Amino acid sequence: MPEIIVDLFWLLAFIFIVLFVAYHRINLMVSSLIITTSTYLYTSFGDGNFIWNMTLWLIAGALLTINIVPIRRSRISKPLLDIYRKMVPKMSSTEREALEAGNVWWDGELFSGMPNWDVLMSMPSPTLSADEKTFLDGPCEELCSMLDDWEISHVNGDLSEEIWKFIKKHKFFAMIIPKKYGGLEFSSYANAMVITKLASRSAVVSSTVGVPNSLGPGELLMHYGTEEQKEHYLPGLASGEEIPCFALTSPEAGSDASAIIDSGIICKDQWNNEEIIGIRLNWDKRYITLAPVATVLGLAFKLHDPDHLIGDADEYGITAALIPTNTPGVSFGRRHYPMNIPFQNGPTSGQDVFVPLDYIIGGKDMAGKGWKMLVECLSVGRAITLPSSAAGGGQAAAYASGAYTQIRKQFNLPISEFDGIKEALARIAGYAYTMNSAISVTSGAIDEGEKPAVPSAILKYHCTEMGRKVANDAMDVHGGKAVMMGPKNYIGRSFMATPIAITVEGANILTRSLIIFGQGAVRCHPFVLKELEAAEEKDQKKGLKNFDKALFAHIGYAISNLSRSLILAITQAKYSKSPVNTITKRYYQHINRYSAAFAVASDFAMLSLGGELKKKELLSARLGDVLSSIYLASTVLKHYENQGCKSEDLPLVEWSVRTQMYEAQEKLHNFLNNMPNRILAFFLRCNIFPRGRSYSPPSDILTKKVASLITATSKSRDRLSEFAYTTLEPGNPLGLLQEALLLSEDAALIEAKLNQARKDGIIQSSYLGHQIEEAKKQGLLNTQEIEKIKLVHQKVSDLLSVDDFSQNEFGKKQ
Ligand SMILES: Cc1cc2nc3c(=O)[nH]c(=O)nc-3n(C[C@H](O)[C@H](O)[C@H](O)COP(=O)(O)OP(=O)(O)OC[C@H]3O[C@@H](n4cnc5c(N)ncnc54)[C@H](O)[C@@H]3O)c2cc1C
User: Fold this and answer.
1) By the 8 A CB rule, do 792 and 743 touch?
2) Residue 570 and which of 532, 674, 761, 811 are 20 to 30 A apart at CA?
3) What is the mean pLDDT of residues 724-734?
4) Which residues does the annotation mark as catalytic?
5) Does ligand 1 have an atom closer than 6 angstroms to the CB of 183?
6) What is the pLDDT of residue 512?
7) Burial of 365 (0-12, 13-18, 19+ CB in 10 A)
């Protein structure tokens, strides 16, 4: 065999072994031995020159040496720890509490660059219990049937007395309260589906019901309340006698909620004719949902103890207490007007309100723990209420827009036949599918005991953003029908509501820029938090030991990810592990690839920018987008499995995953384009995109297939809008649209006959109403056909019509 081939063989074999060891994350000791043996074989039989061979032996020697822990610790880890301690800013207690909230789940796997798919795939498919199903089919359907959004929003500016009573009677406010206190004790999945259904019908009702089942007194009491507080409040909250609200936001502190100046001073005063130690509260809060009608106010304030009446500290920090709104000094009742969606929301203030210490949630021991309570509860709650509201809007928009564009004709064709409309319809359907997937998979994980803080932030941001895109598209495909407000407009108000979900529970720009990656990078990264904790460890010996362990594991992990990212990019991940061997296998493999690429980019971003990365929001937000995209894509795949791999849904799966993966690719590309260290950026580009950017967005053929799934009655269409309120009744536009769609499908042959007759010049008019008259005169259709097509015409005309008002009605001039 020619010598050059033999030499090449040894070189390739050597490279292959090194990459193999790194790719599979073989432990340090074993990989050192393998690499040393390979070095011996290569330098003995290969054709490397002296300098090259010596370099390899030096690397092998260094590898073997770092296995000797005492030498490694004293010579490498100790000096690095000293530098690291100087570099890393000290974490504030609020930052630490935010980081410690919740736990790490599938997000940690995606962050690792080598996801163990079992973690996701072993999660059972979420299901509804018999009680939950009965509630959704019973009271929830009934409540939807009682709602008239125009009456609520335009005429009354509130829910009617009857609706308030119904909501309380059927315990809509008590979905998360345990049964032993009289609540419904629903799973997170059921809670999410109830909100989805309500949101498909009325944003006022979904907001009203959503808040007490999200972050509020009920949730806080269950987790941190004393037994007495639970006994005192939870039964009342469950029965609806008590209406809760939670007041954190104040004029000076919105996104930076920890900056509130609302205060509580520990002092002595009279309470029930007795002098007690209590808290004198002063607050000025705004934007508080349910505050105008609340009976109990969850209040966040900063607790001070200047006279040291309860301990040695002067300041305790943010504390949460429950204040009955009839306590002297409490002001409430005035209302804000959020975006034409008049759910009860308003300011509240308190002046020198004196309350006992046991009004603190959890009692005196929980003084100063308010921030921790809030971030812990939010770490789960953010995955439910707002994402489900967006999904409800998405399900309704998909159902309505599919039918509407089929029954609305222009240029003699249903507008759904036009490619421009198909593109918008595909986005509506695809994003609705992605939202459904993310919510059902994540709420299912919560029900299995996970508290996924980073996925919750991902869902809060991305579902509400997808909801906004869907609402925009639904407006566009409906044209003037969606613009003209009135009882017949079923689209405009959910479009108006989108900024509300964008703003609350962590405004979206902040969530994307600071929380998803900012929190995720430290929280989900397998080693960063361990390194930070080791650096802050007071026991120097223990700190060094932990730092050394984390650091070398981190280095091994970074090398492994570099190798994985390169190999997976070159091979387009074709040989990587997938939990399924079906048509969706390639998507799992692409996620493997982007997980490794993301891990590499994150590590090098942190290495090159350190603490600065947090301030470089444009960069960190893009990394957060990559993590979000692969998280969302993986939930789509899991949802498809959970629903029994329905092949009709494959276009939706493909559109959703492709859109997310394309987004991941483009965001990584933009991240590299903007990385300040250009040499590093070039190196990373060679590693991550050695074959360029190969992922393309959904093709036109796919776009059309997805659009066609919602413009005709089908199982896919029903599954996509499974939890929307679609019942056929006179007040429900979704039910009526479906009825019209079915009728027009049934009359398709008659319409085809009329079209043909028009083409042949037998009838002249292009307007269906006149065509029917002409066809009747000419005996073109039989009586039954005439009745059928007349019915379609009448139903469609009703649905296409819009409202008009007299001068007096309009603008409430009378
Ligand atoms: C309808 C509605 C209901 C609400 N209900 C409640 C309630 O029940 N209880 C309660 O306590 N609060 C409630 N809120 C308050 C809500 O949580 C706050 O509005 C929210 O936290 C944002 O504060 P802000 O409106 O003052 O905006 P600001 O904090 O002024 O923010 C303005 C913009 O700046 C961005 N921003 C701020 N900081 C950063 C940063 N570091 N990086 C990037 N961008 C940043 C934000 O994302 C936002 O886009 C409600 C608000 C609304 C609108």
Assistant:
1) yes
2) 674
3) 97
4) 505
5) no
6) 96
7) exposed
Distance in Å, CA 502 to ligand 1 centroid: 9
Which DSSP symbol is given to 279?
E
Pocket test for ligand 1, best of 284, 386, 510 (most atoms within 8 A of CB): 510
Residue 594's alpha-carbon distances to 143, 567, 589, 692, in angstroms, are 44, 12, 9, 14
For all residues of the chain together, what is the average pLDDT?
A: 94
Please determine, for residue 683, whether its predicted confidence score (pLDDT) is greater than 70.
Answer: yes
Round to whole Å and give the CA distance between 664 and 671: 10
Burial class, 275, CB count within 10 angstroms (exposed 0-12 / middle 13-18 / buried 19+): exposed
Read off the pLDDT of residues 174-217 as tens digits, 9 standing for 90 and up: 999 999 999 999 999 999 999 999 999 999 999 999 989 987 88
Q: Answer whether 287 contacts ligand 1 (Cβ < 6 A).
A: yes
Per-residue pLDDT of 79-135, as tens digits, reads 999 988 887 777 777 777 777 888 899 999 999 999 999 999 999 999 999 999 999
Which atom of ligand 1 is found nearest the CA of 506? 21
Q: Is the CB of 341 under 6 A from ligand 1?
A: no
pLDDT in tens, 45-90: 877 788 888 998 999 898 899 899 999 999 999 999 998 888 777 7
- pLDDT for res 811: 64
| CB 623 near ligand 1, within 6 Å | no
Amino acid at 786: I
Closest CA to 218 of 159, 290, 280: 290
Torsion angle, CA of 104/107/112/114, rounded to 10 degrees?
130
Number of C-beta neighbours around residue 67 at 10 A:
14
Helix (H, G, I), strand (E, B) or coil at 733: helix
Q: Using DSSP, state whether 325 is helix, strand or coil.
A: coil
Q: Is the CB of 504 under 6 A from ligand 1?
A: yes
Angle made by CA atoms 150, 151, 157, in degrees to the nearest 5: 100
The token duo for 382 is 């953010």
Cα 555 to ligand 1 centre (Å)? 39
Does any ligand 1 atom lie closer than 6 A to the CB of residue 514?
yes
| Nearest residue to 723 (alpha-carbon basis) of 167, 204, 158, 126 | 126
Largest CA distance in the chain: 104
| Integer angstrom CA distances of residue 426 from 152, 257, 393, 439, 565 | 32, 39, 16, 20, 32
Burial class (CB in 10 A: 0-12, 13-18, 19+), 790: middle
Half-sphere exposure of 202 (CA within 13 A, CB side): 26
